[in-house]
Design brief:
This protein is of the alpha+beta class. It is built from 17 helices and twelve strands. It has helices spanning 24-34, 54-60, 74-81, 93-102, 108-131, 139-156, 170-184, 194-223, 225-230, 235-241, 252-283, 285-298, 314-326, 359-362, 382-385, 406-423, 454-457, and strands spanning 38-43, 46-51, 66-68, 135-138, 332-337, 341-343, 347-349, 355-358, 424-427, 436-438, 442-444, 448-453. The strands form four sheets. Strands 1-2-8-5-3 form a five-stranded mixed beta sheet. A three-stranded antiparallel beta sheet has the order 4-12-9. It has a two-stranded antiparallel ribbon with strand order 6-7. Bound molecules: protoporphyrin IX containing FE. The site of protoporphyrin IX containing FE (HEM) has 26 residues, from helix 11 and helix 16.
């Protein structure tokens, strides 16, 4: 047995007090540089292993030895999302059932339908930017509005009206508070105290409110047959009609958890990806020029994108992949062994002990990636991508618990970036220095871009 390297801690609390509350993933990413491949961190009495070596990541994909671990912060998030796909334990019957029933909701046919819903949402964003002439945009705020409105409409035909009103919809502020709480609990000592109790009550209140809103939407669909019959093929429509081989569908409670799961998973992750991609575009003029040249040739000014166009933008896809390499917006996924075992050359791991695949470390592992911290569009050219070991790049997770919404995210991101580039010039008037904010996912904080209408310049 070989001990797993670990930064020195203090008795009883281990490394707990070294963990920066608001930048924990970035702290682990630094540790990955000091302890290449694998290291262990002690959260008081819990030892968590972090893996950034592709060979170990491949070993952890063995479903006979390891299963997805729903530990903190996902276990806290269960208060909101219950046994929805993301937060379900693999052995819960609803995971298997929902996984099978929801595959059609993310297939090609469904995606075409969602595209027709996505397009007017992106057009609203574009119209807002157009209407005000040159203007400074808070990128993360704008991208959250875009992705939330998109998943609200594609998910359950619900308009949040985020382009019409400046204050965020209370549903979103409530959900964001619940996500932040799930993350902050990681570094909060679990001792009974008034702060802990107040936060617990807040989380429960927030969950109740989120559940009520979604339950009302589901009840409306169920009780108004015309609404169900009329319903476009949104995710809720597909879920309501799906039945398994026994003729059983999902319960109302599970439907509620799935809707909330899609709202959470569908907005946080993709808005961060869009914001990071815009960051690399404004910071790298040569990248911007290359991606824009492609957009201009496939979608010249005045041309409305089609679903088919999305497959004709390989350079834009390279941008998205390289962005997700450097900033995988879901930065960690976790597994645990079914029994005490050893990984790699003999590192011991105990039954149910968390093993975290640290994507920000894996994707910057110098043994795989040349100059890993620098942005290089060419890493994902067709020829170069074929050389990347599959276990070295996992922005959408691994195995049967991998992301079901990957195509949705790609389609939405490509469409939004293509239309933004088709219509606007982008500038970086304040010389933004990257400052990454961590909630459950990662995003650039306080990033402002100046957009000016290209039509005016021509
Ligand atoms: C850039 C965008 C996205 C990224 C980087 C991303 C990343 C991930 C990752 C890493 C996982 C695995 C988590 C784990 O093993 O614990 C995952 C799972 C999942 N994602 Fe995504 N995701 C994205 C977009 C989406 C979208 C748009 C949706 C839905 C509309 C979605 C729905 C889900 C669901 C439901 C799961 C759980 C699947 C299961 O366990 O059965 N994701 N995602």
């Amino acid at each position: 047995m070989i001990p797993i390297p670990s930064p020195p801690g203090i008795p009883l609390f281990g490394n707990l007090f070294q963990l920066p509350r608001l930048a924990i993933t970035q702290h682990f990413t630094q540790l990955a540089k000091q302890y290449p491949g694998v290291f262990q961190v002690h959260f008081a009495y819990v030892a968590a292993t972090f893996v950034t070596d592709p060979a170990l990541v491949a070993e952890l994909a063995d479903a006979k030895r390891f299963r997805k671990l729903v530990g903190p912060p996902l276990s806290t998030l269960r208060t909101v999302a219950g046994d929805g796909l993301f937060t379900a334990h693999s052995e819960e019957p609803n995971w298997d059932k929902a996984h099978k029933l929801l595959v059609p909701a993310f297939g090609q046919r469904a995606m075409r339908g969602y595209f027709d819903t996505m397009l007017p949402v992106v057009e609203q964003l574009i119209a807002n930017w157009n209407a005000s002439g040159d203007q400074d945009i808070d990128v993360s705020d704008a991208m959250v509005r875009l992705t939330f409105e998109t998943i609200g409409q594609c998910g359950f035909d619900f308009e949040f009206g985020l382009f019409k009103s400046q204050p965020m919809h209370p549903f979103i502020t409530t959900m964001t508070r619940a996500l932040t709480e799930s993350m902050e609990r990681l570094t909060r000592l679990r001792l009974p105290n008034p702060l802990w109790v107040a936060k617990e009550w807040q989380l429960r209140r927030d969950s109740r409110y989120l559940h009520q809103v979604v339950d009302q939407v589901i009840a409306k669909r169920r009780t108004e047959p015309e609404a169900l019959a009329r319903s476009k093929r949104d995710m809720l429509g597909i879920m309501l009609q799906a039945v398994d081989e026994k003729g059983e569908g999902l319960s109302d409670q599970n439907l509620r958890f799935q809707v909330l799961t899609f709202l959470i998973a569908g907005h946080e992750t993709t808005s961060g990806l869009l914001a990071f991609a815009l960051y690399y575009l404004v910071k790298q003029p040569s990248v911007l020029a290359k991606v824009r040249a492609e957009v201009d040739s496939v979608l010249p000014l005045g041309c409305t994108p089609t679903y088919e166009n999305m497959a004709q933008l390989p350079v834009l896809e390279q941008l998205i992949k390289e962005t997700l390499r450097l900033w995988p917006t879901v930065p960690i996924y976790s597994v645990a062994p079914f029994a005490d075992t050893e990984i790699g050359p003999g590192y011991p791991v105990r039954k149910n002990q968390p093993i975290n695949v640290l994507l920000t470390g894996l994707h910057r592992n110098p043994a795989v990636w040349n100059e890993p911290d620098s942005f290089d569009l060419e890493r994902f050219s067709v020829a170069n991508e074929a050389l990347v070991p599959s276990s070295a790049y996992k922005p959408f997770g691994s195995g049967e618990r991998a992301c079901i919404g990957r195509q949705f995210a790609y389609t939405e991101t490509k469409l939004a970036l293509a239309l933004i580039l088709q219509r606007f010039d982008l500038q970086d008037p304040y010389d933004y220095q990257l400052n990454v904010k961590e909630t459950l996912s990662l995003k650039p904080a306080a990033f402002v871009v100046r957009v000016s209408n290209r039509k005016k310049l021509n």
